[in-house]
């Protein structure tokens, strides 16, 4: 790179003052400054684009390595599944010949299959709302409309003591 020190910049400024003249020097300096700013921004954009391209290439390589690892895992799983199927068929080959041809449900429970309880309807009428019952009906039938605290409930149902 070109090494520009203070003495060289001063020499360039003196030559520019003599050649261009003091009237046009400020306008030329502003133009040179804007052009240098544009050039710096352009160089920064090019650097950023190159960095993005390099990162994109690295991401593509990483993606390929992850995909190849996933393919390896998938193939090992398929191989293990195939080995298991072969071993399973060898082990169960003797059981198929010994078992009866009819299905007995009690055999299914003894093998270890899960037993689920039978569905029972809750026998509730969800359309009836408690709040839809009128207050006078609740009072007549003895349905509680307010909650009692424990102390109030004990006091209400405490037998009355007789005084002699």
From TrEMBL:
GO biological process terms held by the UniProt record: protein transport by the Tat complex
Pfam families, alphabetized: TatA_B_E
The keyword NAD appears for this protein: no
Sorted UniProt keywords: Cell inner membrane, Cell membrane, Membrane, Protein transport, Translocation, Transmembrane, Transmembrane helix, Transport
Superkingdom of the source species: Bacteria
Subunit structure: The Tat system comprises two distinct complexes: a TatABC complex, containing multiple copies of TatA, TatB and TatC subunits, and a separate TatA complex, containing only TatA subunits. Substrates initially bind to the TatABC complex, which probably triggers association of the separate TatA complex to form the active translocon.
Protein name in UniProt: Sec-independent protein translocase protein TatB
Organism: Tepidicella xavieri
Protein's gene: tatB
